[in-house]
Sequence to fold (258 residues):
Amino acid sequence: MVLKRSTTVTCAVSMVSVVKNTPSAVRALERFLLPNACLACERWVGDSEPDALVCARCRLRLQPLLGGCGRCRHPLPLIGGCRFCAEWPPELAWARSAVWLDHEAREMVHHLKYRGYQRLAPLMADLIARHAPRPQGGALAPIPLTRRRFRERGYNQAAVIARALGRAWNLPVHEELLTRRRDGGSQTALTPEERAANVAGAFAAPPAGVARGVIIVDDVLTTGATLVAAAGALAGAGWRHIGAITFARALPFERRVI
Ligand SMILES: [Zn+2]
Ligand SMILES: [Zn+2]
Fold:
């Protein structure tokens, strides 16, 4: 088994937790302490790109969303319009995602959220910028974590992606625009209906400012319930031209690998 950078070797963990998010020469120490294995496939990353967290092979395996619905980019059924965004309210004008949540993307999200790999965000932002058109304007607004989850994690993965995307697209990031009214539970194990109920009314936003629009940013789009709830809060506060962008999109049911 290849020892991953995230391996919990007791003596190395505290040092790595400092090193892995520091964009400086101390990465040489990380390379020395921990073998250079891809976070997605655990194979060795080539010497030609010693700081790559995800190997070239896995990056090539990422599946971008292509074509589909003009509003949400989900694949269209053979007959009729898009069923994925049909129930979304009109205030959420559009949604884009860079790649499908296949194995490689899932590992990237997992390492960003649960293993502290904030350094994955620039790669995610690059993928978003490559596969989604840059909005004409507007501010990026990350989905906020619950207070409890933020305390546990120490950072908001959506804000980390939003900052990197703001740099890639040269758009402002308003990290405090969306706030949580209440702490809902995890969305992970819920049905679509339960997800919608869980986040309904969960967000708040200040009265609309001068931005030309708001682009809500999150790591994964599953049913869209979170984005719809956030868009509702923004629209209720007078914001207009609301879209959403996520790094990954949950696979349509028929594409899931059981
Ligand atoms: Zn790999
Ligand atoms: Zn759609």
Remarks:
- The longest strand covers residues 92-100.
- Residues 1 and 210 are 54 Å apart (CA to CA).
